[in-house]
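Hi there. Long-time user, first ticket. I'm pasting a complex I've been working with (about 1131 residues overall). I'd like to know whether the download I got is complete or cut off, because the file seemed smaller than I expected. Thanks.
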Amino acid sequence: MPVTDQFNIVIVGAGPAGLSAAGRAAELGITYLLLESAPHLANTIHSYQKGKYVMAEPSTLPLRSPYQFSAGTRESILDDWQQSSDQLKLNIRYSAAVAAIEGQQGRFIVSLHNGEQIAAENVVLAMGMQGNLRKLGTQGEDLPFVQYQLLDPDEYEDETIVIVGAGDSAIENALALSEQNSVYIVNRRDEFARAKERNIQLITNAIEDGTIHCFYSSTINRVESLPQAGTNDEHGLLVLNTAEGETTLEVHRIIARLGAIPPRKFLEACGIQLPSADPSAVPAVDQYYQSNIPGLYVIGELNGAPLIKPSMNQGYEVIHAINGNPVDPVDEELLWEKLKQLSGVSNVAQGLDLLQQGIGFLRSLTHLQMREFILDSDLVFPSPDTVIYQKNDYSDEFYSVFSGDANLLANVDAPYQIMSLQPSEFFGEWSLISGRRRAETATAGNNCVLLKTSRRAMRKLMLSLPIVQQEIDRIVVQRALQHFLVPGVPPELLEPYAERATIEHFKLDDVIVHAGDAPDAFRLIRCGSAMVKRHLSGKDVVVSFLPVGSYIGEVPLLSEKPSRETVVATVNTETIRLDRDLLIELMEQFPAVRGRLDISVQETLRKEIQFTNHPEAGDLVAFMMDQGIGEGTDVLLIDESLCVHCDNCETACADTHGGVSRLDREAGPSYAYLHIPTSCRHCEHPHCMTDCPPDAIHRAPNGEVYIEDSCIGCGNCQQHCPYGVIQMGVVEEKKNSLFSWLLFGKGDAPGSSVQQSPNHKTDDADEDTVTTSSIAQIKKAVKCDMCMDVQGGSACVRACPTGAAIRLAPEKMVDLLRERNRRAS
Amino acid sequence: MHESFFRYQNFYWLKVALGLCAISIGLYAWHSPQVVPNGGTWLGYTLGTIAAALIVWLAWFGVRKRNYRSSSTMVSGWLSAHVYLGLALIVVATLHTGFQFDWNIHTFAYVLMMVVIVSGLYGVSLYALLPSRLANNRKRLTREQMLHEIRDLDEAALNLADQIDPRVHDVILRSVEKPGVTLTFWQQLTAGKLGKDPLESAERFLKGYQNDFVDKTLFLDAQPQSGAQATMMYISNVMAGLEAEKVDKLRALMETVGRKKSLLKRTRRDIQLKALLQLWLFFHVPVSMALLATLLIHIISVFLYW
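Hi, the file is complete. Here it is re-exported in full:
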């Protein structure tokens, strides 16, 4: 067949990268053709589960593309892109799968499966990997009831379905299908670790309550079809290798979600070299995305950029590169804005290099990681003696000293505890790790230049680079020892001891110390909290509660007797562990340790006597821990013996917060006249912050966890919150005069709820048009913000007529128990 | 920590109120006017002005309570002051009258005031007593959960009844159709027994039915014979009868109905307690309004006729 057309650029694949490239070529008036093997745009997004919410990460990265893209549902994104393509009059050919690419720059021949040949000067491969899904790799992998995608889970009903895989898509499919079907999930490993935290939680719950059955540590042996199956019978037989041996299962359907790999054969046939034999290896490209073959470019997922937004940017940039006018990376300008403040820096690369040399823990970051990290950080230049943060503030930024010096004052009353920090050192790590208040006051020294990084960026970095985590842990241990155990000793002196301490992680309900354990270790809680239980007259009685900064095991160690108590983590908890010998060495070297321990032992014994005299107080602690008070920093508590159920607290909340009450007084558990209404506990490590696409959830210096207006209403936080305290609501600022309501019946009563009608349309509005008023009515996440914008503090507490409502920080819990004990006796 | 409005800031307002009473009584005892003590002497005017100001300020509580953005004070402090100063009003206003009572608008204003205070006292006593009872009665269930559980028990009962006998099913259905939760005003307040409660009759019917059933099953075929064999037969008969599925189901149904009955009782008690906590205000507030109007007439008429 003759060559039909001649183009400057042929782009293969109409996904985010390909569309963006084609769109930019159209804008620049370059001749191009976009080839798409599917009969529609963006096949990968098209094959997402219906209504799936698509994220636009990294949020700090600007978008550079003729196409719009922001986080939203699969449908809204596809509609947007289709519209933009129509406007750009995109030169696209659907159902055009590429069979081969031959030739060289200026004279490429692109052959299609239908035999047609197209001539191109340059070729851009933007086909992603989803066209090459990883299959089961066993006998029967192509049988008709074995599928590798799931579009609409509602299509299937009353079927036996096996999901293969343990990633996010496998879990999401399994959960969606389990509503109407009997679902099994096959996991190669003995746990779900690869997926998002929330998905792991959901699938584990579903397996625990029996909605989904899981085969752990199992692989697929083979798939067979069952002969003479009726329409409603199981079609196939799945043979599994499980830990206990071979198991067979009759199934209607098998859905394998095993990810995708690059189309190696095709790439190699094009002449593209792959750096390794690993099936997941992607082609290496230069800074303009050009492969080893001049004129043949690879962008998007196929060169290792799995996210949508960076792929779209690459599409834009590659067209400029081909056109001979390459552009700087999109974040260049943003980085320059930050880095130009440094003296003697003339370009971004130099600035990044300087920072990396100046701040030790950044040296292990790759070029791209460094760019992303600095995008999430700010350089600050405080004048000498400026307070960076105050002791007991709840702020959670992390600071690295780039030049000059900074001072930390652990205790304002004892000036000898000032610690001077030099370049490359950092501070603010305690609040980052513990989620609690600042342990010290930080002030700027002379010529101080600091790099200030958000909690979110720091935690992300620590997760992706264990070496950074280790470095921060090292300093945390040193300073925690100094702060909580050996006051007044410079941390350098403690370094040899800190090196031998270890960090232990405990999950909810994990036992930290068993009763009867030999006294072999001393622990300091650096995050989370724990309960101490003792076995008394046949049952476990809670005898103490240990918040962040508490010691565990000092009494058995000093008395050299086995522990009489069991210590249990009440939330995810981390401890710094010092073995017995290490603690003894410390005591010998620094006698002050003994003083600290003495005080703690006395306090512990006093508390225990109190709890033992009032066993019901222990039960109350156990109840409160069950309700997650252990990880809260400020909790609303109602005394049921005072509450007259007038709901003035709810009304006050609604009145001060746009007509939506953020607390539900009646809901929530009670114990011994203490009621915990459904209302935010302002957790030390807020679950709601886990996955907020616009990064709209923050913690204010006074500890309030609040949601900014930039909320997009995705509902992630609502799903993450284990206490059900976040609602999606329409907030409307309206104020009614009490008297016009009272005397003339005008408007609603103060504090009454806003009508919740998200799809409100005006009468004369066209069915399909969204009126401005309905845009204003988009539901957003709302939660308690402790009335941070209301003068005088929490409206719920101030509006309670009988004094039944109070707010309490867990460290004040002992006072509450003391008071209740007094009342009881 | 939790601090009830009674104890607000260590009984601050009780102390203020007692001080006000003491000063008023002291002045009254010390004062010896030329005429019979009455509202027209300088002390009478002083006490009257204080009392009138107090009444207006006490009524302002309703406004303050709804001013949710007010930042300065706690509503519980206001309620504390409202209660103690309201009680002090008994002393101040009574002394203001100089014990001069008659059939006129002035005494009427006084009587209305006393009615408001007494109704307030009643409200305060409810506030002191009922919250604990309400909590005890709920046993950690919310109203919503109680109603939900009643619905579940109804379903379970219907299901069991269906497997026993159509007559039983009818009776249970009648009790389910009239759940006895929506109550009249009076029923709400008394939480008393409802005359023809279908649940009560269902329970009675079930007891009778069960007796009949057990009688029939166990003893109908029992022939009065003696000897070891007859005894063995008798025992196996009884066992067979007791094991009969129907007996189990009847027992389960009786238990379900019993549980629903006790839960229904708790729900009604809950409704009653909450109604009691609210209803007195429907008296206290309107009479306060009437008092304000009467007070105005009292003041104007005093000045007009003087």
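A couple of notes from our side: Residues 9 and 252 of chain B are 55 Å apart (CA to CA). Chain B touches chain A at residues 1-5, 7-8, 63, 65-76, 78-79, 126-127, 130-132, 134-135, 138, 140, 142-144, 274, 277-278 (CB under 8 Å).
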